[in-house]
């Protein structure tokens, strides 16, 4: 079963929950850090790097001797990754390229070839020599986060595990969609604040659009009955877990230690949570 941990905004504790859920169930799970623009799950895990692979995409290169400066490739690119610059010819902005291939197909002179170019990396690590962490990292300046995310999700496991936990990017952009797509269940992490509720509603709309089962974990609560629980009740959304606000959690987190180090009693709750999700998906 693939479980994506997502959030409508950053700072809700999404990675904290993903790492804690992984640690509480590590004998039956693997963890994929798909927050490729800012991966940080490894900071809270004593991991050992096993290997690293490049993620590449085909990027267009202009053969100036063949180019007639007709501009058809520029007009075909919907991402503005090409520009016709007079005598300088056609300029390719590789950081904006989405590798769709439209420019090369539009060129009537065969002046465009595609060259595999590195856009990110995948790091494979072991925790306690047995438990797997896969980290995707987008190369600085590139916009191809979905490609790196897809590569992370396609990485074969070191050993067979029954569940995969996916730490998704925050927000509701195409990176979010790439990370949660084809998941069996999505956990949306939020906080009981007006900002948290606003961005949770956006994430809920996105998840419902792609028709995936989901539930909500509310972090840093002060009262069990709050604006998020009321929203979830009104919209028939299951609240899977509520975690109380605790300064000790923040202090522990700032030292690079996990949520379970601060709140060890959560381990059994997170094991029970995974078992409940199995029942929902089945």
Could you explain how this protein is built, in words?
- 32% of the residues lie in helices and 29% in strands.
- It has a nine-stranded mixed sheet with strand order 3-6-7-2-8-1-9-10-11, sandwiched between helices.
- The protein folds into two domains: 2-46 and 128-281, Rossmann fold (3-Layer(aba) Sandwich), CATH 3.40.50; 57-118, Alpha-Beta Plaits.
- It is elongated.
- It has 282 residues and is of the alpha/beta class.
- It contains ten helices and eleven strands.
- The mean pLDDT is 94.
Q: Which strand order does the major sheet show?
A: 3-6-7-2-8-1-9-10-11
Number of helices: 10
What is the helix/strand order? EHEEHEEHEEHEHEHEHEHHH
Q: Tell me the domain tally.
A: 2
Throw out a few tags for this protein:
elongated; Rossmann fold; 10 helices; nine-stranded mixed beta sheet; two-stranded antiparallel ribbon; 2 domains; about 280 residues; Alpha-Beta Plaits; single chain; alpha/beta; 11 strands
Report a brief summary of the structure.
It contains 10 helices and 11 strands. It has helices spanning 14-24, 72-76, 102-106, 145-153, 174-180, 194-209, 227-234, 247-254, 259-262, 266-281; strands at residues 2-6, 29-33, 47-62, 82-84, 90-92, 112-127, 131-138, 163-167, 185-191, 214-221, 239-244. The chain starts with a strand and ends with a helix.
């Amino acid at each position: 079963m693939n479980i994506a941990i997502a959030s409508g905004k950053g700072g809700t504790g999404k990675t904290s929950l993903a790492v804690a859920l992984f640690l509480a169930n590590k004998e039956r799970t693997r963890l994929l850090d798909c927050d490729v623009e800012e991966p940080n799950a490894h900071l809270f895990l004593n991991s050992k790097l096993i290997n690293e692979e490049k993620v590449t995409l085909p990027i267009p290169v202009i053969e100036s001797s063949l180019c007639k400066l007709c501009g058809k490739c520029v007009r075909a690119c919907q991402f503005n990754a090409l520009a016709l610059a007079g005598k300088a010819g056609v300029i390719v902005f590789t950081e904006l390229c989405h590798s769709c291939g439209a420019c090369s197909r539009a060129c009537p002179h065969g002046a465009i070839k595609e060259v595999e170019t590195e856009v990110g990396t995948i790091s494979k690590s072991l925790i306690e020599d047995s438990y797997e962490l896969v980290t995707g990292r987008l190369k600085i300046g590139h916009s191809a986060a979905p490609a790196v995310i897809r590569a992370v999700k396609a990485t074969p496991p070191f050993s067979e595990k029954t569940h995969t936990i996916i730490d998704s990017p925050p927000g509701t952009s195409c990176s979010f969609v790439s990370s949660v797509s084809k998941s069996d269940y999505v956990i949306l992490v939020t906080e009981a604040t007006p900002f948290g509720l606003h961005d949770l509603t956006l994430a809920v709309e996105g998840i419902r659009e792609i028709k995936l089962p989901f539930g909500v974990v509310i972090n840093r609560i002060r009262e069990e009955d709050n604006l998020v629980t009321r929203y979830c009740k009104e919209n028939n959304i299951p609240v899977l877990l509520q975690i109380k606000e605790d300064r000790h959690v923040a202090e522990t987190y700032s030292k690079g230690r996990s949520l379970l180090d601060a709140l060890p009693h959560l381990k059994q709750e997170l094991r029970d949570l995974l078992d409940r999700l199995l029942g929902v998906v089945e």
